[in-house]
């Protein structure tokens, strides 16, 4: 049973990667950093080819996560290529995302093992079911945003703090030390907001006698200084800047200078009233029940509740800033569900509580299905570039006539990553022996152009450009110079038929759920060929 539950967690993360293999702009820095490390290597002569010098972003970010992901993926890439499982660079994108999903699934499995040991196997089972039926954490744990690189060490720390015998009141001092070091490393290197979680955990550990203040200070200083030295050395090299600490630069830019507010602000209550319900789905009410029923759950959730309260003081809010609380809330929800299914069944209340648990899980599955289906159709840029490659297969051209594709801003932001530049170098050394023979000839190389702020007049005037992935519907004037080859639709909204919903349940069943909730798409990108 234990192995089967772990496999379910891994399989859920992998399924989300395979169902939605494309990426969006918020994933691009780490994805392209992984691409560049994999393709070019890390020698000083290779750094000039890296994408972040062309598109640096508002603030520098650490390369450490991408470096580790690339190094872990390298032998897997070679093995997969040797077995014929990789045919192009897009397969590499899927593979590195599968590796990241695997690492984060491992962290969730460690928490499950700790939960089973402390709260019992049934609670561990319910934790697994709640986790895999949610949308955001399984969908995003294979996506290369900084928070997903931070998630693994945070989850390892959580598992260490939970792990103990059922009758033992305290975690071991060693577990607290390792958890403190991991959270310190994560805050210094990956995501500074983890400091707001580290503080309450350390405070709780001191007040409950898990560890002494002097040891906390010693662990914090040693792990903090080592982490700082690591990120400064690595990132100063990759960014070609002296004494660069990316997380401090981001903290200074977003918090001290208040630049994050330019991305929008939300009320202080937004995490409680909007983001947590969206992340947790039906785990939210069951976690409240677990909180009320079990002192151990109150101790577990205390630092996470304080964390959400502290981070609520910042004006700019996004769900990913609090993603670290989801596993802990799922533990609380599993404990609440465990109480619900354990009530005596000879009374109506016990029977109803028992039935609520599968109903809640079914609600999770229904919501996750709708969100996943919408997300699968929300990457028109990746779909457009893949369609372009299908329409124009690999072949050799005169250098003066080889395809030159301009990729619009919307396409670049919704999936047209560097890994989808299939018909142009670079290619990693591990993949070169297995390349299609045409791609080894320079005459087969395409040009992929992401120059921004070009008007249609500019694109038409540049005779080297042969194809466009355009984000504006072609007009009659555009049609004089360009032929529409294909269009790509993207998700707009879910349409609920209110008339059917207002009728009886039997009518809804007869009409079918597909008629009650309908996914609405519209054309968002157009593939154009010069006439």
Automatic annotation (TrEMBL):
Residues 1-15 form the signal peptide. One of its GO terms (molecular function) is dol-P-Man:Man(7)GlcNAc(2)-PP-Dol alpha-1,6-mannosyltransferase activity. It is an enzyme of class 2 (transferase). Pathway: Protein modification; protein glycosylation. GO terms for biological process: protein N-linked glycosylation. It is a multi-pass membrane protein. InterPro entries: GPI_mannosylTrfase. Keywords: Endoplasmic reticulum, Glycosyltransferase, Membrane, Signal, Transferase, Transmembrane, Transmembrane helix. The chain crosses the membrane at residues 92-110, 122-139, 174-190, 220-239, 299-315, 321-341, 353-371. The keyword Membrane applies. The keyword Disulfide bond does not apply. Its EC number is 2.4.1.-. GO terms for cellular component: endoplasmic reticulum membrane. It is found in: Endoplasmic reticulum membrane. It catalyses: an alpha-D-Man-(1->2)-alpha-D-Man-(1->2)-alpha-D-Man-(1->3)-[alpha-D-Man-(1->2)-alpha-D-Man-(1->3)-alpha-D-Man-(1->6)]-beta-D-Man-(1->4)-beta-D-GlcNAc-(1->4)-alpha-D-GlcNAc-diphospho-di-trans,poly-cis-dolichol + a di-trans,poly-cis-dolichyl beta-D-mannosyl phosphate = an alpha-D-Man-(1->2)-alpha-D-Man-(1->2)-alpha-D-Man-(1->3)-[alpha-D-Man-(1->2)-alpha-D-Man-(1->3)-[alpha-D-Man-(1->6)]-alpha-D-Man-(1->6)]-beta-D-Man-(1->4)-beta-D-GlcNAc-(1->4)-alpha-D-GlcNAc-diphospho-di-trans,poly-cis-dolichol + a di-trans,poly-cis-dolichyl phosphate + H(+). Mannosyltransferase that operates in the biosynthetic pathway of dolichol-linked oligosaccharides, the glycan precursors employed in protein asparagine (N)-glycosylation. The assembly of dolichol-linked oligosaccharides begins on the cytosolic side of the endoplasmic reticulum membrane and finishes in its lumen. The sequential addition of sugars to dolichol pyrophosphate produces dolichol-linked oligosaccharides containing fourteen sugars, including two GlcNAcs, nine mannoses and three glucoses. Belongs to the glycosyltransferase 22 family. This is Mannosyltransferase. It comes from Tricholomella constricta.
């Amino acid at each position: 049973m234990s192995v089967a539950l772990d496999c379910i967690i891994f399989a859920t993360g992998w399924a989300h990667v395979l169902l939605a293999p494309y990426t969006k702009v918020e994933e691009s820095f780490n994805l392209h950093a992984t691409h560049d490390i994999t393709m070019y290597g890390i020698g000083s002569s290779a750094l000039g080819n890296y994408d972040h010098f062309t598109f640096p972003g508002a603030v520098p970010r650490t390369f450490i996560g991408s470096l580790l992901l690339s190094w872990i993926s390298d032998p897997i890439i070679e093995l997969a290529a040797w077995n014929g499982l990789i045919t192009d660079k897009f397969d590499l994108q899927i593979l590195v995302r599968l590796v990241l999903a695997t690492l984060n699934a491992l962290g969730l499995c460690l928490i499950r093992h700790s939960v089973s040991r402390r709260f019992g196997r049934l609670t561990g089972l319910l934790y697994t079911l709640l986790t895999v039926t949610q949308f955001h954490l399984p969908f995003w744990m294979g996506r290369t945003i900084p928070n997903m690189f931070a998630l693994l060490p945070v989850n390892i720390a959580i598992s260490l703090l939970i792990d103990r015998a059922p009758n033992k009141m305290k975690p071991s001092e060693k577990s607290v030390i390792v958890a403190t070091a991991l959270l310190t490393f994560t805050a210094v290197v990956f995501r500074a907001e983890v400091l707001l979680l580290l503080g309450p955990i350390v405070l709780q550990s001191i007040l409950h006698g898990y560890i002494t203040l002097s040891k906390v200070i010693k662990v914090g200083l040693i792990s903090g200084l080592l982490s700082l030295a690591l990120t400064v050395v690595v990132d100063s090299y990759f960014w070609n800047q002296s004494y660069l600490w990316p997380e401090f630069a981001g903290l200074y830019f977003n918090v001290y200078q208040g630049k994050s507010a330019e991305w929008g602000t939300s009320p202080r209550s937004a995490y409680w009233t909007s983001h947590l319900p969206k992340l947790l789905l039906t785990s939210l009410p069951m976690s409240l029940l677990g909180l009320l029923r079990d002192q151990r759950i109150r101790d577990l959730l205390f630092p996470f509740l304080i964390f959400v309260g502290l981070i609520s003081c910042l004006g700019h809010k996004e769900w990913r800033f609090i993603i670290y609380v989801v596993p802990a809330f799922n533990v609380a929800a599993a404990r609440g569900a465990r109480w619900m299914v354990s009530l005596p069944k000879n009374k109506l209340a016990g029977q109803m509580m028992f039935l609520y648990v599968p109903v809640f899980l079914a609600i999770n599955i229904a919501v996750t299905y709708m969100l996943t289906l919408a997300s699968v159709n929300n990457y028109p840029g990746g779909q457009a570039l893949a369609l372009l490659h299908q329409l124009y297969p690999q072949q050799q051209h005169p250098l003066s006539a080889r395809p030159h594709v301009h990729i619009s801003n919307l396409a670049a932001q919704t999936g047209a990553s560097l890994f989808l530049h299939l018909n142009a170098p670079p290619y990693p050394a591990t993949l070169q022996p297995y390349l299609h023979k045409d791609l080894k000839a320079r005459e087969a190389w395409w040009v992929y152009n992401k120059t921004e702020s070009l008007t249609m007049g500019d694109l038409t005037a540049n005779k080297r450009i042969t194809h466009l992935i355009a984000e504006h519907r072609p007009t009659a004037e555009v049609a004089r110079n360009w032929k529409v080859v294909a269009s790509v639709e993207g998700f707009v909204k879910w349409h609920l038929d209110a008339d059917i919903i207002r009728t009886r349940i039997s009518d809804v069943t007869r009409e079918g759920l597909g008629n009650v909730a309908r996914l609405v798409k519209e054309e968002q990108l157009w593939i154009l060929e010069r006439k």
